[in-house]
Amino acid sequence: MRAINVILVSVCGAGIVSAALLGGCDQSTAKPAVRGVAPSGNGTGAAAPAGAASNTARNRPEQRSSDVTAMDQSNSAEAIRITAEIRRAVMTDAAMAMDAQNCKIITDAAGVVTLKGPVASAVERDGIQAKALAVAGVTKVVNELEIKTKE
Prior knowledge:
Layout: E1 5-12, E2 15-23, E3 37-39, E4 47-49, H1 56-59, H2 77-91, H3 98-101, E5 104-107, E6 112-119, H4 122-133, E7 140-147
Parallel strand pairs: 6-7
Antiparallel strand pairs: 1-2, 3-4, 5-6
């Protein structure tokens, strides 16, 4: 039986940061070390700079079991139609900022629409709510849109 040597190389933006020569086929102990870089957790295997921005603290309130999340979106044809009509109305309004256009719109099977995310002003918040209420089949709108504060 012939031994196979494999060179494992990790690359990070500026160039090669680590390399390891692996003998044979046993790679179970191969763990390339990268200094100053933390895993990104995005599933790509790519690394993010240590201390990178994180929305974990901001998203933590949504992790309570009583909060509505995107996973609560109903897959019924009616709920999907409602969500799509609201999204279309928001996206075609040129007065809406990018954050407003990217708000979460979650419709459950009973026609209850939950709106979440940051918006630039009360005008945007109220406008998105009005667009949601104007769609046929909406029974209630829970407006959890937050007005962004200047930092």
